[in-house]
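Q: Please design a sequence for this.
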């Protein structure tokens, strides 16, 4: 498989990337021949590249490479342009086809303006480049499939309808021989009736050139639409039977694909109120993991907002159009939990629905299931949940046939699951299956900035709810709530403010008008004990200590702790040294 076989398509994609990002682009194949380029790289297309060690690294490892200081990075040391590189920055990502690196897309900055655009959102750009690499891979796959199927019209139509872009095969007179459903939608073709403007367009596309590309604007059903077209000559024994393949894309759809770190997806996390560095870091981390299907374990004290994070992750994911199903494993009686999760067949037990009933996993098919209070799940059901995570199928109570389910699992608990594993209260294999991506939500008392931010939000919320006009908290009340420990976290703070609104409906809330109410609700003593402070750093340190204790207890090597923690061996020893942990 060689990108040179679809060089014009590769060049058009390079042009599109450069137009969107306003950064120079080059695309090379696995032999380091420049297949496409923009700006100064365009003149050397189809030539062997020099100084290609960065691309060698990307193709060899199958991983993206970011070079913030070209010519001085470690990977540049053997390059002929070492310490004399014209670039000011570079990001590249490999193009994978059938698990093989077949090329690389590189973004190149040659001045400070381009460098700033390149690195101001590197994660977003890598996400975009990954999509473009997938697009190139699919284009190559499409090219080889089309080669195989050009002699079979029926097979070609089936193939064309699998592609998420318009495809038309026209003859040398511009008449349509084959067309897929996407093209009919884009061109406003209904019941095989081709609008006159489209007929004229297709006739104009027939020409002497083997390949061309262009953007056109059409008015279809009184709606103006901009389309991006490519034309490629299909092989034929004679000119009379010559055919052309036209591909069509809606420019608006291309722009949507090119959105870097979609703001619409991130908006789901706007409902999680917080301005502290800790909560912003957790929100950013949660957004990133929302883009995969890996199982997540959310840990945090009661009332920290674990379900809100789970909902935001679902709403930011590709599964957002499908169900989000919540199950509180601690609120459902043990004898009912199995049928609630996995459903049951008719007659499975006395009182069962005569038609049977699907379980929560079936209802969440293609969506997300949120298993709250997973630490309360009985041991027997832990075994069955483990099977679901491993096999991706469930079996109804009283049933004999497995049912495949496509569900992302997000679990949550306020308990220390790791300690429960050590005490034999929770299955170790299930813990590791659930803890693929751990998210730890810090308690409210460790992020004081959020206490005031949440207070302002809840005051606004309850002003609307109670039709009140409370202006906010006075300084004396703010000082008090900042010192209070909030063992119930965000939930306790919200309930506290709702309580106050039952007695105060306008003006400022101060100790002069609310001292008795506050003392009665929070039971504050005259001398408050000092608030314990927590941080993500302390939590990380504690987790490393627990992992080391576990491997010692199991007579394992210290290096095995790195697997438990999901970090590299070198990273583990670096953190042990950093935190001065005794081993």
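A: Design:
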């Amino acid at each position: 498989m060689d990108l040179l076989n679809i060089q014009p398509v590769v060049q058009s994609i390079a042009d599109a990337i450069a137009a969107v990002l306003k950064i120079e682009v080059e695309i090379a194949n696995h032999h380091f021949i420049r297949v496409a380029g923009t700006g100064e790289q365009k003149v050397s297309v189809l030539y062997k590249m020099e100084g290609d060690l960065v691309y060698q690294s990307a193709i060899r490892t199958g991983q993206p490479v970011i070079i913030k200081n070209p010519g001085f990075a470690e990977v540049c040391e053997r390059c002929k342009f070492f310490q004399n590189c014209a670039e000011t920055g570079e990001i590249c990502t490999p193009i994978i086809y059938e698990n093989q690196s077949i090329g690389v897309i590189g973004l190149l900055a040659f001045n400070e303006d381009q460098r700033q655009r390149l690195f101001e959102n590197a994660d977003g750009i890598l996400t975009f480049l990954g999509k473009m690499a997938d697009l190139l891979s699919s284009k190559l796959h499409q090219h080889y499939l089309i080669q195989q199927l050009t002699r079979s019209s029926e097979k070609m139509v089936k193939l064309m309808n699998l592609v998420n872009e318009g495809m038309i095969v026209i003859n040398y007179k511009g008449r349509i021989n084959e067309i897929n459903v996407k093209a009919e939608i884009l061109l406003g073709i209904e019941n095989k009736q081709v609008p006159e403007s489209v007929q004229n367009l297709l006739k104009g596309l027939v020409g002497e050139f083997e390949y061309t590309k262009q953007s056109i604007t059409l008015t279809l059903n009184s709606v103006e639409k901009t389309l991006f077209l490519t034309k490629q000559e299909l092989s034929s024994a004679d000119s009379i039977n010559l055919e052309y393949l036209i591909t069509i894309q809606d420019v608006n759809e291309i722009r949507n694909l090119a959105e870097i770190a979609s703001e619409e997806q991130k908006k789901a996390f706007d409902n999680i109120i917080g301005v502290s560095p800790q909560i912003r870091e957790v929100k950013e981390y949660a957004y990133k993991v929302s883009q995969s299907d890996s199982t997540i374990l959310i840990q945090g004290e009661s009332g920290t907002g674990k379900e809100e994070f789970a909902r935001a992750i679902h709403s930011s994911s590709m599964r957002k159009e499908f169900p989000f199903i919540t199950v509180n494993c601690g609120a459902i009686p043990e004898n009912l939990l199995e049928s609630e999760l996995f459903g049951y067949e008719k007659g499975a037990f006395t009182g069962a629905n005569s038609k049977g009933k699907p379980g929560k996993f079936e209802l969440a098919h293609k969506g997300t299931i949120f298993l709250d209070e997973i630490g309360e799940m009985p041991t027997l059901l832990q075994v069955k949940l483990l099977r679901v995570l491993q096999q991706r199928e469930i079996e109804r109570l009283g049933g004999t046939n497995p049912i495949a389910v496509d569900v992302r699992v997000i679990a949550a608990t306020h308990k220390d699951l790791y300690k429960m594993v050590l005490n034999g209260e929770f299955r170790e294999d299930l813990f590791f299956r659930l803890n693929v991506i751990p998210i730890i939500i810090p308690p409210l008392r460790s992020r004081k900035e959020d206490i005031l931010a949440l207070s302002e939000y809840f005051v606004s919320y309850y002003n609307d709810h109670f039709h009140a006009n409370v202006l906010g908290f006075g300084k004396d009340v703010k000082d008090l709530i900042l010192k209070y420990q909030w063992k119930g976290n965000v939930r306790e703070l919200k309930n506290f403010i709702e309580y106050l609104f039952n007695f105060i409906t306008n003006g400022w809330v101060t100790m002069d008008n609310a001292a008795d109410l506050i003392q009665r609700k929070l039971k504050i003593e005259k001398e408050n004990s000092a608030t314990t402070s927590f941080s993500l750093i302390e939590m990380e340190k504690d987790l490393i200590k627990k992992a080391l204790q576990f491997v010692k207890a199991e007579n394992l090597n210290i290096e095995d702790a790195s697997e438990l923690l999901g970090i590299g061996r070198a990273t583990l020893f670096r953190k042990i040294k950093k935190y001065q942990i005794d081993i």
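Q: Thanks. Anything notable?
A: The chain has 23 helices and 21 strands. Confidence is low (pLDDT under 50) at residues 525-534.
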